[in-house]
């Protein structure tokens, strides 16, 4: 059963994770967000009741 043989797949998986963590991840984390979050307090919007015509 070739599915149980980790020899060809384990180095490929290890190499892909190392590539991701050492090369790709620092590049994507260095991008800055264009819309930085602000500390603006939001006030609740006033709501009014709806007059249903059938009640």
From TrEMBL:
The record's Pfam families line, in alphabetical order, gives:
ATP-synt_8
Q: Which subcellular locations apply to this protein?
A: Mitochondrion membrane
InterPro entries xrefs: ATP8_metazoa, ATPase_protein_8
Name of this chain's protein: ATP synthase complex subunit 8
Statement: the UniProt record of this protein carries the keyword Zinc: no
Gene Ontology cellular-component terms for this entry are:
mitochondrial membrane; proton-transporting ATP synthase complex
Task: Family membership, please give it.
Answer: Belongs to the ATPase protein 8 family.
**What start and end residues bound the annotated signal peptide?**
1-30
Q: Might you name a Gene Ontology BP term for this protein? A: proton motive force-driven ATP synthesis
- Which keywords describe this protein according to UniProt? ATP synthesis, CF(0), Hydrogen ion transport, Ion transport, Membrane, Mitochondrion, Signal, Transmembrane, Transmembrane helix, Transport
Q: Which GO terms describe its molecular function?
A: proton transmembrane transporter activity
Give me the ranges of the annotated region Disordered: 35-55
Instruction: Answer yes or no on keyword Flavoprotein.
Output: no
Originating organism: Astur gentilis (Northern goshawk)
Membrane topology listed for this record: Single-pass membrane protein
Q: Which coarse location class describes where this protein primarily resides?
A: mitochondrion
């Amino acid at each position: 059963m070739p599915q149980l043989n980790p020899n060809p797949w384990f180095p490929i998986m290890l190499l892909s994770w190392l590539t991701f963590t050492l090369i790709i991840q620092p590049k994507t984390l260095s991008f800055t967000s264009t819309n930085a979050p602000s500390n603006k307090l939001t006030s609740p919007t006033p709501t009014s009741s709806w007059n249903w015509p059938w009640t």
